[in-house]
């Protein structure tokens, strides 16, 4: 074997070793969510569009490198979700994962992100465990959580006379957590919980669950589920005639589901949310741009807005650190900088990773109040972020004692 051939082999070998580095010569963001199941219209392609808009609005680069967005469907299966995250982190050079509706998958990815020293920003996940006992120095929880929604609505409805509750709950971590938070708020406000029942994710038959709710003696049925499950279960409840004698409360009644549910059935329902497209000029301008880019022409919800805002703040932190490879350092920078964007306004990220911003108590309009397809809600009250989210001292996050 001559020396020239050996030299060529050495060059080829070095190129093969270096190839992953070439693939990683960018800041890579992964959007991991449900793109084919019950949460697809609530995050899905909309979250991908929001992330790409954020990258474009930021200028397309961070720390001098181009920013790329990749996406995948976790199919609401933990093994698939964690498998995608592992491949992204170990083989594809992804630096941060955003969104992840489905709290079981979110908790697993949060743990892996800490293990691999990457970044996880939960804008679609709800479980309060992400900023509690399962918090990590690599996690930020951006948009909402089960404490803020469950506690806020539980208290508000009891104050309006809805004191006897029955819960229809999705049987996974998110649903259990949401029911727990709402039930504790109901009891603390002077109400009582008469019972609950749990249903599988994506079920279509709610008959037996609704019959139990009717027989319980409750005057409020709380739906501790999300996405299409909330819409389907509330539709079935209306068909069963529960609206005559019961107040139906969708604890995560997303805006995107209201056209399907219909204002006739949903009017008067109240929801908690940190974002609504018609709040101000900034939210309206974003919603118009978003709707022009998404195939369904739908307006953005809070979780999609959360992807946009959190990607912007993440890229600011990457610039501050000078790179994206040290996930813990990037999250530390995210916490050190105040947040400020046109969708959520001014805010901050606590030591436990909880993003703090105001929440709004919104009420579904009556059909005659609505002037367009997405003119669905009106603001009833504004709640300070410090009052809406669980106090940091109550979360048992290890980071708060360091």
Largest sheet: 6 strands, mixed
Query: How much helical structure, as a percent, in the residues?
Result: 40-55%
Low-confidence stretches at least 5 residues in length (pLDDT < 50)? 1-23
Report how far the terminal alpha carbons are from each other: 60 Å
Helix segment tally:
14
Task: Note the run of SSEs as H and E.
Answer: HEHEEHEHEEHEHEHEHEHHEHHHEEEEEH
Mean pLDDT: 91
Count of distinct strands? 16
> What form results from the Cα inertia axes?
globular
- Widest β-sheet, arrangement of strands: 2-3-1-4-5-6
Q: In what range is the share of β-strand residues?
A: 15-25%
Structural class by SSE content: alpha/beta
What is the CA-based Rg, rounded? 22 Å
Pfam families: Peripla_BP_6
Family: Belongs to the leucine-binding protein family.
Keywords: Amino-acid transport, Signal, Transport
Protein name: ABC transporter substrate-binding protein
In brief, what are we looking at here?
The protein is of the alpha/beta class and 402 residues long.
What does this protein look like?
The protein is an alpha/beta fold and 402 residues long. Helix content is 42%, strand content 20%. The protein contains 14 helices and 16 strands. Strands 2-3-1-4-5-6 form a 6-stranded mixed β-sheet, sandwiched between helices. The radius of gyration is 22 Å and the shape is globular. The N terminus is likely disordered. Keywords: Amino-acid transport, Signal, Transport. InterPro entries: BCAA_transport, Leu-bd, Peripla_BP_I. This is ABC transporter substrate-binding protein. Belongs to the leucine-binding protein family.
């Amino acid at each position: 074997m001559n020396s020239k051939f050996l030299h060529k082999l050495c060059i080829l070998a070095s190129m093969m070793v270096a190839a992953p580095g070439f693939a990683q010569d960018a800041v890579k963001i992964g959007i991991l969510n449900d793109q084919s199941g019950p949460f697809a219209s609530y995050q899905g392609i909309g979250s991908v569009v929001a992330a790409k808009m954020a990258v474009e609005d930021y200028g397309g680069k961070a720390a001098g490198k181009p920013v790329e967005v990749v996406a995948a469907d976790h199919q609401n299966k933990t093994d698939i979700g964690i498998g995608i995250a592992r491949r992204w982190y170990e083989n594809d050079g992804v630096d941060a994962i955003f969104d992840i509706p489905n709290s079981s998958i979110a908790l697993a990815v949060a743990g892996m992100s800490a293990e691999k020293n990457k970044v996880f920003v939960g804008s679609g996940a709800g479980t309060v465990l992400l900023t509690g006992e399962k918090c990590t120095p690599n996690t930020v929880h951006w948009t909402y959580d089960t404490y803020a929604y469950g506690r806020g609505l539980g208290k508000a409805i009891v104050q309006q006379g809805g004191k006897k509750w029955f819960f229809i709950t999705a049987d996974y971590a998110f649903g259990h957590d949401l029911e727990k938070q709402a039930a504790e708020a109901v009891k603390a406000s002077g109400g009582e919980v008469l019972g609950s029942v749990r249903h599988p994710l994506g079920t279509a038959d709610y008959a037996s669950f609704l019959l139990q709710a009717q027989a319980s003696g409750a005057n409020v049925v709380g739906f501790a589920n999300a996405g299409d499950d909330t819409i389907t279960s509330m539709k079935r409840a209306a068909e069963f005639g529960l609206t005559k004698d019961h107040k139906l409360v969708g604890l995560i009644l997303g805006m995107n589901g209201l056209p399907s549910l219909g204002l006739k059935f949903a009017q008067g329902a109240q929801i908690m949310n940190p974002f609504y497209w018609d709040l101000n000029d900034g939210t309206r301008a974003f919603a118009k741009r978003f709707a022009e880019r998404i195939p369904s022409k739908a307006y953005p919800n809070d979780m999609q807005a959360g992807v946009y805002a959190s990607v912007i703040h993440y890229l600011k932190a990457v610039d501050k650190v000078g790179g994206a490879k040290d996930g813990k350092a990037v999250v530390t920078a995210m916490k050190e900088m105040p947040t400020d964007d046109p969708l959520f306004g001014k805010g901050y990220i606590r030591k436990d990773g909880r993003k703090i911003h105001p929440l709004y108590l919104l009420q579904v309009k009556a059909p005659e109040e609505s002037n367009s397809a997405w003119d669905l809600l009106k603001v009833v009250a504004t709640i300070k972020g410090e009052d809406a989210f669980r106090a940091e001292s109550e979360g048992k996050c290890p980071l708060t004692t360091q």
